Write the structure tokens for this entry.
Amino acid sequence: MDFELNDDQRLFQRTLREFVEKDIVPVASEWERSGRYPAEIVERFRQMGLFGMTVPEEYGGLALDRVSFALVFEEIARGWMGVAGILGSHSLATWMIAQHGTAEQRDHYLPDLATGARRTGIALTEPGAGTDLQGIRTRAVRSGDEYVINGTKTWITNARHADPLPVLVKTSEETPAHRGMSVLLVDASSEGLTISKDLPKLGYKGTETCEVVLTDVRVPVSRLLGGVEGRGMQQVLSALELGRINIAARAVGVAQCAFEAALGYSRQRQAFGQPIADFQAIQLKLADMATEIQAARLMTYWAAVRSESGAVASEAAMAKYFASEVALKTTMEAMRIHGGYGYSQEFVVERLYRDAPLMAIGEGTNDVQRLIIARALIQGTATLGW
Ligand SMILES: Cc1cc2nc3c(=O)[nH]c(=O)nc-3n(C[C@H](O)[C@H](O)[C@H](O)COP(=O)(O)OP(=O)(O)OC[C@H]3O[C@@H](n4cnc5c(N)ncnc54)[C@H](O)[C@@H]3O)c2cc1C
């Protein structure tokens, strides 16, 4: 058993950390407050090849191992979780196209998605259906060599930059409903595709999250992911496992940043003639934070390693659930340690506190993760132990 990063992963982590310290940390708070799009950071992602992290090398991607994939999200979220979102659903969708796409779809999209010349996201959620994806109402009806799509998707991250946007649709009314679901790759220029509004958010700024309306959008049959109807739910669920590792890693990054801020502040803030770090009540909080963050990190890397060799429904669910709860708790504790200053926009913990809850919701709520874990335990498919 080896708990160390290998040399390549260590070097990659150092490169990411230097990039985040230089190009993200100095601008994060100001840019998130102004609502400015972080175009320069996107350009740096491009230069570093990060848009290709889940794209096979033959298409020009980095084809990162899964621990390195987690490191990307951990390190970037340590600087600014919002911009990690720019890579989040992109990497999930590129993986899905690489894994499930036809040869023509892979050849057509992956080289440009790998360089960031094209970007993408994923459109699953609807106003009336999030957890219950089988309840979606977006329909695609076959008409000759095309599908005609009608419906509304909501909470779609990267929607203004996605080209193509993979959209989960119903292609038939078969029961059970998942048998009638498919993914269509919708090009941004498609007539009838409208980004109807940007959704105002508590945190997770730096990347847009939008409502998308599809009105008689026509896409060629060749844009049916994998070329066979009825596989959409299975394609999406496999991609969400990867997405949950990305969310877990982001949660670790946010929690780590909160811990570092709290540790630094507690050493420097004086009360009753001494640094508050000398008070045992503060020390206990710091000890709990560090211990829980390290447990979340190890669980995230564990799920990442396991995912190299197949499906990891329960492992990814455990990592996402645990790490996001740690992020929620740690950001609150960091705010307490900062006293009144933690509530001020001049200190980073205020942003971290607003960013943390998304990790308990996105890629499936934490209650849903607990149900996935419980189901696997009862069915005997969950892996506990090493
Ligand atoms: C900032 C942000 C970005 C997002 N980005 C994207 C994106 O890019 N693409 C995309 O498709 N979606 C995206 N989402 C949507 C996100 O995935 C959903 O919000 C999430 O899956 C929950 O769905 P919902 O909001 O419809 O909640 P609901 O499904 O309505 O859930 C409401 C509550 O009911 C509970 N619940 C539901 N079903 C069950 C059950 N069977 N058992 C027990 N409890 C249950 C949930 O746990 C939750 O507490 C984003 C959301 C946010 C906030």
Observations:
- The longest helix spans residues 232-268.
